């Protein structure tokens, strides 16, 4: 398995809904089978998120780490992040390390889930 820190691009969106969890986690994941890029929204709200990726032949585990920033609450907004995988996504499952749940990977284009 491969573990790597991924650079985070600065983009925020308003999180609709109630209170979010205290631990950073994935909100949305986008990707295409032949691509090595995964685009993600994480519930860190300007708290300098970093993605840690573990890859195997059957799954991709994504952990989110973030700094605590005074005056910012994780349930207020989302940050965007892009992970570059060692191999294309293919039919591998993406798992949120914070919850252990399999995350539905939404397509970059179209309306059918990638896996």
Give a brief rundown of this model.
The protein is 0% helix and 41% strand. The chain is mainly beta and 115 residues long. The relative contact order is 0.31.
Mean pLDDT: 78
Question: Which structural class do you get from the secondary structure elements?
Answer: mainly beta
The stretches of 5 or more residues where confidence is low (pLDDT under 50) are 1-21
Please indicate the percent range of residues in DSSP E strands (runs of 2 or more). Answer: 35-45%
Helical segment count: 0
Q: State the separation between the terminal residues, measured CA to CA.
A: 20 Å
- Spatially, the strands of the biggest sheet line up as 1-5-6-8-9
Fold and architecture overview:
The chain has no helices and ten strands. With 115 residues, it is mostly beta strands. The two termini are 20 Å apart.
List its salient traits.
115 residues, mainly beta, five-stranded mixed sheet, 41% strand, elongated
Give the SSE layout:
Blueprint: E1 3-6, E2 12-14, E3 26-30, E4 37-42, E5 50-55, E6 59-65, E7 77-84, E8 93-96, E9 102-103, E10 105-106
Parallel strand pairs: 3-10, 6-8
Antiparallel strand pairs: 1-5, 2-7, 3-4, 4-7, 5-6, 8-9
